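FAQ: What does a multi-protein file look like?

Like this. Sequence, then tokens, then the next protein.
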Amino acid sequence: MTTTTAKKQVRPTAQAGGATDLSELVHYTPEQIEAAAWLPYSARTLRDKASARVFPHSRAGGRITFLPRHIREIAAMHEVRPAGERKRPAAA
């Protein structure tokens, strides 16, 4: 008679480079972002652009919320670099 041993399943762990502290896991509503003036958009605009998939967001529990990394990414979307930093085509 042969006995088989069941292998213990290993649960996935957080990937390197993930949230380092709990503050990175807090979800903010569009109203909270507008009240804190973190972005130059109204709560309605944030919600509309998130629904249109223009802005990154979370939809946990069916509600549109933003993580701190989403807020940073939205701010970076509208950065304008100086003209001297543009990539120039290589001379032929």
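And here is the next protein:
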Amino acid sequence: MCYLEAMRLILSSFMIILVMLSCKTRSKAVENSQTSSVDSVSGGVDGQRVATTLAFYEKVLIPPKFTQLKITGKVEVNIPNTFTPQLNSTMYIVQDEKIWMNMNVLFINAARALATPNGIEAYVKTERSYIQSDFHYINNLLNVNFINYKTLEKLLLGRTFVKLSSKQYQMHKTKEGYTLASVVPQQFSDTDNEGVYHVKLEYAENYDLLKVDLQDTKSKNKLFIEYLEWVDFEQMRLPKYVKIIIKGGKSGEILLENTKFESQKMNTPFSIPKNYSKIEIQ
């Protein structure tokens, strides 16, 4: 199975199976981010720098608490030399347990996918094909190597999905909010592989995540994610648009438009139809 076919299957059927922390207490999140060692913040006296940095890390590292979240929306996938129509999507997230997604074109069911901490499954009806894998394949498609279930969940919801340490990042206060940039290359890894990245994150004044820029130091691979038009929903902040750009050895662009958020429970049936062909990613 060639890369383009595999990428189209996964991205179009699971809106990228893109990239986080389980719910923890405020003190635990601050401890893990090592905010006791404070970076410099432009402007202000030392006391103000410490207070600003502590508040920043607490806000960006503590994830929202919810039981389940239903998101209705649309997905656009752009891959060179490949056409994929705009897809209507329904995504259902049970925090820390599963991400289920159903996609259709003109009210016709086109694809369905399920991600759990154990891996992913997805199938596309039009191609009568399916995939069953761990997250190694998703990492390969996105030119990274650190995505697991938790990072995927955070990525979809606009939460900080990379590890942060105040000793290894420098924070700058800007007119728009905050910029956080790694001062040393960051090592992220799954169970088998390790990558080294330059990382830059941008946040709004209210700590909404705006942009994530990851550049592999060992190659020309890049992953850029942008979050737009944040909205309030049941004491949570959620992005209306998630834009993902992949550059390097593989290229592609995905736009997720979240048009409606709900907290209701829903059934999430998933079974791979018989006689479908399994995709083996090389």
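Q: Is there any per-entry metadata?
A: Some entries carry free-text notes. For the entry above: The first helix runs from residue 3 to 14.
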